[in-house]
Specification:
With 77 residues, this protein is an alpha+beta fold. It is built from one helix and four strands, in the order E-E-E-H-E. 29% of the residues lie in helices and 26% in strands. The chain has a four-stranded mixed beta sheet with strand order 3-2-1-4, with helices on one face.
Length: 77
């Protein structure tokens, strides 16, 4: 994992409770498949920020394009 990039904090995150998973889930619409969960909203948000870093690292490793962040926004659903 790389050191935190200011870019990782600029992606939109949708955070919601999942009855099926019995946890909060955070999704990043701009990064396909990028999501994480946690027992609390804070934990889910922390985990999704780590998932963003890992998603970007993997994209760089494979030479895949990395979408420019649309702007920081947290949506609680």
């Amino acid at each position: 994992m790389t050191s935190p990039d200011l870019k990782t904090n600029k992606y939109e995150v949708i955070l919601y409770w999942s009855d099926e998973d019995h946890s909060y889930v955070g999704e990043v619409p701009q990064l396909p498949g990028c999501m994480a969960h946690g027992e609390t909203q804070s934990e889910a948000l922390e985990n999704v920020n780590e998932a963003i870093e890992l998603w970007i690292d993997t994209a760089k490793e494979f030479g895949d394009p990395i979408p420019e962040p649309a702007g920081k926004r947290l949506i609680l659903a």
